[in-house]
Amino acid sequence: MLSLPIRSPAGDVTAVHAYDVAVTDTLKSYPTLNFSFIANEDNEVAEKMIAPRTIITDPTTGQQYRIATSNPVPTNKYRVYAVTTIHIAHDLHDLYLDNTITGSQSLKACCDFLVSGSKFSYSIDGNISDHDFGSDTLGNAHGDDVLSSIAEAFGIEFWFDNTTIHLATKIGKDNSFVFIDKVNASKIQVNEDYTTIETAIKGTGKEIEQDNTGGDSGGGSGAVASFARQYAGTPYVWGGSSPSGWDCSGFVAYVYNHFGIPMHQPTTYEEYQGQVVGPPYQEGDMLFWGARGSTYHVALALDSNTLEMAANPERGTVIQAINAWPPAFGVRNAQMAAKVQGSSDSDDSSTTDTTDQPPQYTCQGEYDSPMAADDKWGKIWADPFTSDTITDENALKDAMKAQLHDYPDVQYTMDWVSFKSNLSGINNEIAIGNNGWLRDRFGIDVNVRIQSFTQYKDPTTTQTDTITFGNKIFGPDEWSNRNDATRTAIHSGNGNSGSKSHEINPPVTADDIPTNGLQLRSPNGKVYTLTAGNDGKLKLSTEEGKDTNGDKGQTTHS
């Protein structure tokens, strides 16, 4: 039994004598506290206080929970209650934020927006970069949904100390536990889920605003120049033809195509797409350098005095006076001239209504995982990725790569012998997000992170504490090595599949695994060794022989 303080909305306080008191904490979620009690004479007052908004306090941590559900079941003499509560931080759902914020925001500004005028406060651990919401907005939602949106936007995690929200890029401590099957843990299980794999993805960056005035009035005086000016500063890329990078003819072709006038590189093609003209030039004219038939550079006239061009890798796309570098000649395209003047030749059936054009993007692309090869897993397409802030192809590729789930979900679960006793002298610090080591009964070491745990608080319970470790991400090399090993096994024995006999050995038992001298190797190659001290306790030490229990900021493991 465990006595849990209980407080009614009116402020009345008593205690409920409960059993099977279990706290479940899960990363990026709200902790819950579940318990049962018998509605006998000892719990007569407590039973009457089981009602909406009643608060239960965990006496071991001081964390508060609100009653969410109550299920009384009649028995021969008394009712038996099964009660579920949720952490007080879920009161964020009581808030509704009518206003919204958008554009580039700091994490602090978003948190201030979330907690303003409420009982909540927050603490930010570390420096976290601003986030540009683009055309998306934050708000117009319940507080808990706003918090989830903030966490997703900034790529952060959170945990609660009653009504204080703690935010960090990653919560938890490293090397905070060691669990060895049949020593201080039991039933270490692994589950590999292959149904969530994706190996290929397409994506688009920020959409380009298109002129939708259409057919006869497409363009209009100033519209072409206005559209082109927004790309000043775009990088120069030889052979490029998009706002992520273009050369001189790619830039001019991009502007023309935007207004529904077919155009493509190189300059020696573009110089024949109209009538040769001299100054004064007008908006939309193409300006060329070099003799006709062998031009080497092209620019776009914004008006009679100004041009825009993709100059070179050092300058990029620039706007300058025409007389600063006079062109050899100009070419006036009839369709472009008609759009600039606000009317088009009605006999020209090639004039395009831009309202029918498909959307255009500053960048777009595709990313294939190494596992998308035909002799691996093949292409398994993910949902397309879109962004209204990315304008660079490399940034888009990085975003698509991060979005792709090109690995199975590998999850470890185990029963924990005891939260209270230091079995075999191994002290473990258990908290959501903490990182540590598992060694299973086959002697395999795995570095894992706590995703969720259920802890039974009352010492007399017969229930078993459990820990679930977050999905272990094995990179493509791991699965590629597995494929290679499979093919080697299949083709061994002179290439006759199934012809090779295999000796079957019984599984390793607990008695076969020594606990003194066990070595654990971290991903960076550092080796940790478990050794028995004179006091009979096991200690975790580094390869250099330094006990990790020192006063140098290292996590205690012994």
Automatic annotation (TrEMBL):
The keyword Cytoplasm does not apply. Residues 336-368, 478-558 are annotated as: Disordered. Pfam families: NLPC_P60, Prophage_tail. PROSITE patterns: NLPC_P60. Residues 536-550 have a biased composition (Basic and acidic residues). Keywords: Hydrolase, Protease, Thiol protease. The keyword Hydrolase applies. InterPro entries: NLP_P60_dom (IPR000064), PG_Endopeptidase_C40 (IPR051794), Tail_dom (IPR010572). Residues 218-341 form the NlpC/P60 domain. PANTHER family: NLP_P60 DOMAIN-CONTAINING PROTEIN-RELATED, PEPTIDOGLYCAN DL-ENDOPEPTIDASE CWLO. This is Phage tail protein.
